[in-house]
Amino acid sequence: MEKQVALYVRVSTTRQALNDISIPDQVKQAKDYCRKRGWQITNTYIEPGASARSDKRPQFQKMIREACRNPSPYDIVLVHCLSRFFRDPIDQGLYKRKLEEHGVLLKSITQQFGDGPQADLIQTVIAACDAHKSAETAKHVSRSMIENARQGFWNGSRPPFGYRTYIAERRGKKDKKKLEIAPQEAEIVKMIFRHYVTGDGKNGPMGLRAIAYDLNERGETTRNGGKFLQQFIQRLLTNEIYVGRYHFNKKDKNGIAKPEDEWVFLKTPRIIGDEIFHAANERLRRNTAFSTPPRVINGPTLLTGIAHCKSCGSPMRIATGKGGKYRYYKCGLRADAGRAACSGNSVPMQKLNDIVINTLCDTALSSKRIEVIVPELVDHAQRRSESYDGRVETLKNEQRGVKNQLKELWQQISVSEITLDATLQKFIKELQAKNEDYSRAIRRLEQQQAFPVRNLTRDDCREFAAAVRKLLKENKDPKFTRVYLTHVITRVDVGKSKVKMRGSKAALAEQAIAFDSTKLLVPTFDLKWCPEEDSNLHAHTDTST
Question: What is the pTM of this model?
Answer without folding.
Answer: 0.51
